[in-house]
Structures are given as structure tokens and as C-alpha cells.
Write a structure and sequence with these properties.
This protein has helices spanning about 20-30, 45-55, 70-80, 110-135, 150, 155-175, 195-200, 200-210, 220-230, and strands at about 10-15, 35-40, 60-65, 90-95, 140-145, 180-190, 190-195, 220, 240-245. It is of the alpha/beta class and about 250 residues long. It has one domain: Rossmann fold (3-Layer(aba) Sandwich).
Length: about 250
């Protein structure tokens, strides 16, 4: 790749304190981006992330807000825009939650909470960050979806719906802003080895891996690498696309 350099760019990664978001923040920083790492509850993890990035020579600030609350999002984006580093050029909508159970037993609260964070949260952040991108005629919005948006998953009707919504939103927004130099893409990871999946029993992990042609779970850094590419000038003609990173799971 000729130009993955993100020096001078400001990136906001939501849900950055752990898992995939953490690796994305670190990967963007390594390419020179100033990273604002969002968290909602895990302040200690966010502080550790900031320290790790700075130890590697990068620049990072942590910022707490709930993506599901539009007023908090607007205030946070305004704070970033007013900072000496300037507005957000790269937005990674990674924050997400799960509240799993069979749909016939699923409470309304579980449905609304997951949709509010995973889908509405991404829309809140994109709407707040978009204007400066359009004015600059350069911007990157990358929404983290999931393989289950395409294949479904029992017990995750709310989560699957939220991620399918993310993909529809990605395509619609891409059409609206493409002529202004702003791209909007989604990344749909399969089963990635994170704290969440590490809590699964060995039986369940083995069952999952048996359906993955590559014979293993993915690594968060593999998702992060794709994110860096889509954020770079190398991906300037890619928009409205959903990039699947699943080890061939959908090939089955």
C-alpha cells in the first residue's frame, strides 16, 4: 500500500476501551492519527489504552459519552471540534451491546436498548460529525456491523436487526455524501477472539470454529487493519460497501 499514512487526521472511535474498538484505536494511532477514544463505563480500560498509545509515540485523549444519548454525543463532538486538533475526520462507529435471549421471551427493553446503542448511536455520531467533513470535502465514516446481519443468529434477533440496520444506513449515507469527498463503509466481523468470546465454553467455541473454513476465530487486529485501509486515501473510491471479515464463514 502506498498511502496508509493518517498523519494530521483526527479519529473518533466509539466503544474504544476494549476488544475490537481498542485495536482499531491503536492501529489508527500507529498510522499517525490523533485518536479520541470514547468509552461509556470502562474508564480504567480507557486510561490504560491512552497510556499504551502514548507509550508507542501516538496521541490519544479519552472522552466519556453514551452514544445512545444525542445530547451527550453533540456535546462531545462539539468539544472535539473546538479542540486545537480540530474536528473529526475519521469516525469509527464501534460501540455496541448485546442482550441475548430467544425472541419470544425478549423484553421490550432489551429490544429498544440494543437498537438505541447499536443503530441509533451510530446515526447520532455520524450526524454530529458529518458537517465538518463535508466542509473539508474529506471524511471517513466506518460502521462496525456483524456477520449475523447477513446470516442471522438464534437468540439475537435484536442484535441482528440492529446490525442489518447499520448496513442499510451505511449504504444510504454513502449515496448522500459521496460527491462531497466523504466515504461511508461498514465492516462486518465474524467470530473474533475477544473478551466476550473467551467466556464461551470450549464446547461452544469448538462448534463455532467447526463452521469456519479457516479453522480459527479472527483476531481484533485483523479487523483493525481493514479499518485503517478504509480510513486511508487508498480507499478513496470505496463507499457504500460492507467488508466481511469472517474466515469464510459465509462460504458455508
Amino acid at each position: 500500500m502506498r498511502n496508509l499514512d493518517l498523519s494530521g487526521k483526527v479519529a473518533l472511535v466509539t466503544g474504544a476501551s476494549r476488544g475490537i474498538g481498542r485495536e482499531i484505536a491503536r492501529a489508527l494511532s500507529r498510522q499517525g492519527a490523533f485518536v479520541w477514544a470514547n468509552y461509556s463505563s470502562s474508564e480504567q480500560d480507557a486510561v490504560i489504552l491512552k497510556e499504551e498509545i502514548e507509550k508507542e509515540g501516538g496521541k490519544c485523549e479519552i472522552i466519556r459519552f453514551n452514544v445512545a444519548k444525542k445530547d451527550e454525543v453533540d456535546e462531545a463532538i462539539s468539544q472535539i471540534t473546538s479542540s486545537s486538533d480540530g474536528p473529526v475526520n475519521i469516525l469509527i462507529n464501534n460501540a455496541g451491546i448485546t442482550k441475548d435471549t430467544l425472541f419470544m421471551r425478549m423484553k421490550e427493553e432489551a429490544i429498544l436498548d440494543v437498537l438505541q446503542v447499536n443503530l441509533i448511536g451510530a446515526m447520532n455520531c455520524a450526524q454530529a460529525a458529518l458537517s465538518p467533513m463535508i466542509k473539508a470535502r474529506w471524511g471517513r465514516i466506518i460502521n462496525i456491523s456483524s456477520v449475523v446481519a447477513s446470516m442471522g443468529n438464534a437468540g439475537q434477533a435484536n442484535y441482528c436487526a440492529s446490525k442489518a440496520g447499520i448496513e442499510g444506513f451505511t449504504r444510504a449515507l454513502a449515496r448522500e455524501v459521496a460527491a462531497r469527498g466523504v466515504t461511508c463503509n461498514a465492516i462486518a466481523p465474524g467470530f473474533i477472539d475477544t473478551d466476550m468470546t473467551s467466556k464461551l465454553s470450549q464446547k461452544i467455541r469448538s462448534s463455532i470454529i467447526s463452521n469456519i473454513p479457516m479453522g480459527r476465530m479472527g483476531e481484533a487486529k485483523e479487523v483493525a487493519s481493514a479499518c485503517v485501509f478504509l480510513a486511508s486515501n487508498e480507499a478513496s473510491y470505496i463507499t457504500g460497501h460492507v467488508l466481511h471479515i469472517n474466515g469464510g464463514l459465509l462460504c458455508n
